[in-house]
Amino acid sequence: MFRFQVLLDTMSPFALQKFVNEAYFRRAKGDNTIVSLRVVLSVVALCFPSFLLAADPWLTIEGKDGLGKGQHIVFVTGEEYYRSEEGMSMFAKILSQHHGFKCTVLFAIDPTTGTINANRNDNIPGLSALKEADLMVLFARFRQLPDSEMRTIVDYVNAGKPVLGIRNATHAFRFPPSSSSPYKTWDFQSKEWPGGFGQQILGDTWIAHYGKFQKEATLAHVNAQQRNNPVLRGVADTIFCHTDVNSVERLTANDIVLFSGQVLSGLNATDPPVTDNRKDIRMPFAWFKMYTAPSGKQGRSFTTTAGASLDWLSEDLRRLMVNAILDLTGHTQEIPAKTNVDFVDEFKPNPTGALSDEDWTAAKRTPQSFGIKSK
Predict the structure, then answer these.
(1) Over the range 91-130, which residues count as b (16 or more CB within 10 Å of their CB) and which as e?
(2) What's the pLDDT tens digit per position in 10-54?
């Protein structure tokens, strides 16, 4: 018992959480090669009396009444630039409080501190929530997840369930050439499964910034042929976004483009379009796709190249997002004329830009930092 206590003393709180979870998992499978669950919990309670009361390394918000009552949306975040941890938590509040969905938001967590650090590309606790999810919303960039975590995403997609991808999700996964992961083909540069997850499930993989990053904003224009699409109810004909236009070149004739993005000459909504050779070109900005998973099952996805926290200040963009979620979760015909996308509490987005590890550590943000604030 003493040596076991010494072992626990060397663990960070997050490592301790993983150890306890592993004990639960193996015990449930009848595997007693790890010390018994009773011993684990007894020693943890003795040595770390506050541990068993510690908050989960994810955020769950139960749904109120609404169209989504009884359904579960899981947001998977983990990218360095666009403050996905802010934007997706904001949507979790809107969807749970206004529309009834149970929402879980997962984050890139630094295992040494238990705080959010988007630079950690190998750790997103709580992905097992996807096993019961009705929708996965993915806003991640260049993640290299362990096989045990990656498997839950792969299983979700292989079941043909709906997927909503935001901006960096076209290049959500990256594995080094030396990787032996069975999920290496999900890499955004995969040749075996061309373009990996992004191209096969969402419609395209990463190509390039078409507008100049942090210098040229986007004005998205509605596809007039889709104006009567239920997802566009209550959405204006144009949407301004602070983020730049991304190149999207591999959509098929079967994909349904709702908006296309035009490059503006600056970062303000009043800035005119560029006048160079890009002036008459508009890239797909928001679209639906029918995908075929590696399992052979088919599913639907929705993707937008918008996504910075500043973008979500646009009521029309928020409504497009929520309407798409209602559509993907089986409520297409119930989408109201003007879906409620009011902020649940104060939303003060931070600017786009990468942060250092020191910045993330100093911020001390945990998943609970993004919970609903009392008024």
Answers:
(1) bbbbbbbbbbbbbbbbbbbbbebbbbbbebbebbbbbebb
(2) 454 445 555 544 443 344 344 554 445 445 544 544 554 444 445
- 10 Å Cβ neighbour count for 205? 22
pLDDT one-digit tens code per residue, 64-105: 999 999 999 999 999 999 999 999 999 999 999 999 999 999
**C-beta separation of 144 from 178 below 8 A:** no
Q: Tokens 């043909």 map to which residue?
A: 160
Question: 364 pLDDT exceeds 70?
Answer: yes
- Report the candidate in 221, 227, 169 with the shortest Cα–Cα distance to residue 200: 169
Strands 298-304 vs 163-166: parallel, antiparallel or unpaired: parallel
Distance CA 245, CA 240 (A): 11
Phi, psi of 123 (to 5 degrees): -155, 110
- In this structure, which amino acid lies at residue 363? A
Q: How far apart are the first and last CA of the chain?
A: 47
Which helix H or strand E contains 164, and what residues bound it? strand 163-166
Residue 37: phi and psi, rounded to 5, are -60, -40
Instruction: Tell me, yes or no, if the pTM score tops 0.85.
Output: yes
